[in-house]
Design brief:
The complex is a heterodimer of chains A (about 350) and B (about 500). Chain A is of the alpha+beta class. Chain A has helices at about 65-85, 140-160, 210-215, 220-240, 245-255, 265-285, 295-305, 315-325, 335-350; strands at about 20-25, 40-45, 50-55, 95-105, 110-120, 125, 160, 170-175, 180, 190. In chain A, helix 5 crosses helix 6 (about 265-285). Chain B is mainly α and about 500 residues long. Chain B is built from 27 helices and no strands. Chain B has helices at about 20-25, 45-55, 60-70, 80-85, 95-100, 125-140, 145-155, 160-175, 180-190, 195-205, 210-225, 230-240, 245-260, 265-275, 280-290, 310-320, 325-335, 340-355, 360-370, 375-390, 390-400, 410-425, 430-440, 445, 450-465, 470-480, 490-505. Chain B is elongated and about 95 Å long. The chains are: A alpha+beta (about 350), B mainly alpha (about 500).
Amino acid sequence: MSHINSAKDELVGLTLVDGWKVLEKLPRSQTDTGGNFSAGYIVESPSGAKHFLKAIDFSAALSSADPARMLQVLTEAFNLERDILDISKRLSNVVTVIADGTLIVNSSTSGPQPVQYLILELADDSLRRMAVVSRRLPMSVALKALHNVANGLRQLHGRQVAHQDMKPSNVLKFADGAYKVCDVGRASIKGRAAPHDHLAVAGDKSYAPLELLYGHMDPDFGVRRWGCDAYLLGSLATFLICGAQMTALVVSELDASAQPPVWSGAYAAVLPQVRAAFARALDRVALEIPSEAPYREELALCVRQLCDPDPAVRGHPNTRAVLANVGNVYDLERYVSIFNRLAMMAAIYERQNAIP
Amino acid sequence: MSVSQPDKQRRLLPRWQPSKRTIAAGELRPATNSAPALTSDDEHFEQRKEEWERVRSIDVAAELVGSAIVLGRTHEVEAAVRLLAEPSSDVSATLREMARLAVGASIKSSPKRRLSRPGRLERPVLYEQISKTRQHLHQNPRDAYAYIDLARLYTILGQNEKARHVIHAALAIAPEDRFVLRASARYFVHVDEPEAALRVLARARATAQDPWLMAAEIAVSQVAQRAPRNVARAQRALQQGRWAPRSGSELAGSLATLMLKDGADQQARQLFRQSLVDPTENAVAQAEWASAETSGLIVPEQFLRDPNGHEARALHDRVAGHWSDAIERCWDWVEYEPTSTRPLLLGSYVAAVAHEDGNTIIEFADRGLAAEPNNTILQNNKAVGLAYLGQFEEATALLKKIIIERSPTAAQPALYATTGLLFFRLGDLENGRLLYEKAITHPHSRKDRWLQALALWHLAIEESRVGTPEATSVIGRAELASKGLKVPEFGPLRARAAAALKRAPVKSAHS
């Protein structure tokens, strides 16, 4: 679908009810959440602090093929996102919502229109734009980001939320050096219906766990959604190591007949092939970590455990053993501490070897 | 007669190929044609394409190409792929290789060592492969296909017990997987435990649904001389066209073989034709074998050109009397299917009956004996090769290790005949004749006119070489025994007997 220009695109120069000023519209690539119905801006608080504003124009749904359905989807999605942000307040590694509200915009194309907005913390950067692909991000920084992201996901899981769309563009870096998880537009809360529940892949297909791409949807919330987050954390680690998504690496190692856009059988039937391709992909990824780096084996092992193509064995084996039948077997607490330790090891290693 | 005859009964047992080759051959595709779960339309991909048009950076290219790979749309992002795949691009080797694979470059692997002779057992190469696979399994202990590949390497080396352990490991990890089940069944048939193969197949729920597993079950049941369980179900499903032709190919061939054995030639031919709509090379080989057993079945020439169709071509060349070509195809087949003794038996048989080529017979036999040193049939064949070369002491030493009466019944006629051959070549015509007659009148030969005629032709050649008065009458007996049999080797055997008779001096019957 092409981009629809509407009231949500005409906020620059406006002042919101609490004195927030809309300064600048951000290009779509930096705000690519919410599809064609949202736009991103930089806003300034009355005290002069800059923040991020996400604007959603429900009236744009009226020009869609099924306006009633689209309006319902957008409303439900917005309410879910707002509620998740609300229950995620004060989580140290999840982007915090500052304010939300409605603004009437006198659109040049459609007259006065209500635009719903959320004001969030403004980051300095996202992992997507931090020269990861050209391998200029030191491993100590990458591991610190992983530690923060693992903590952010763990914090969300503690609030019964599964993120489901963790990818480099959804990891933001802040001025104090902390990394936070953002964009909960594709998240789900355990026990509450979400408009994207019917989709096999709630988030970005390009990063999705392999079982979801093959249409395997476990009825258990934990397996399907927290298992997805565990995979996405491992995939993020892969990206930080070699600049590629784990899903694409595995798919590229598969025979054409077994790739997700072609395979029409059950996931269980293709799993051995996927596992063999995963093993080959993993061998390549492991080679990207310097052989003398002290964190090499443990980091590769984390990726192996987190990205296991079988959600039934994914995650830390000790966590699985302890929490089987009593808790979230994808609990990320162990990875929070592992990545923290590895980040410190990497920092020492880089200092000793004068790696910039 | 000397070397044992090749397959009288060919069963369409699964080929045991490395997992990568099996996947590439399309044997692991879903049996039915239905829609995949993943649709290739994606809003994020469209946004990434738009961004790529604005910003031609490697960061954008990397994400775009990754998306394209997952969605199967790499043809739309060729410029981005090229940027990443360039040797000078500032990206990781992994990302560069991913981009290369996206445009269809073959998966990079260590260059294959050229074998000094196709089919030769290269132990150092195999040990290296075993070591690599074991290392891989140490890191990836849930890779069931790697276990099966390791078991195959052990089997090639004749280390069957090691192979058994790894087969069980694979079955524990993936008890319903088609490749694991078919390879496991093939292993148990290889070690002469067809009942165990049937148990493995029967335990899997998939066997009642999957045409590839049904085909294996029917073929293994024939080996075990049991009634297959899935015949009615398979026939119904094939009639309904439930599966893609490729998926049903081996099942149709297996059923056809069953029909052929039961004398239902017309139904068999119909099923063989069904098996040839989109056949595997194994199904082509089965049909090629069957074409010599029944009339009116012709395997289209195009299927014989399959790059892996070595067996089918060997069988075709044999029927056509292209003996040297048949031997070369057997060598290719040995290399393609190194766990099987069948190409070794056919190759040595052709080399013996058509050319009396001792060196080639020994080469085939030694290749098999390297993995199975106690294989009676291969030992017998080697003894024949040695006798043809005049190396009587070695041949005698080899045969002395075998107690014929304790050998498998099917091998006994060949063993008697080979001992007879040795006596003839050593000048003891009386004992030679006696042993050949034992081969001809053996209960197993009595049930098999081909075997009887073959033994008679070999006796005729030996009598003719020496020029005994019995030579002509034995030739007559051989001709009588061959009457009505369509065996391509009888031609060269007849010619060899005639040529020997022409050359040989006439001797008394009891000299």
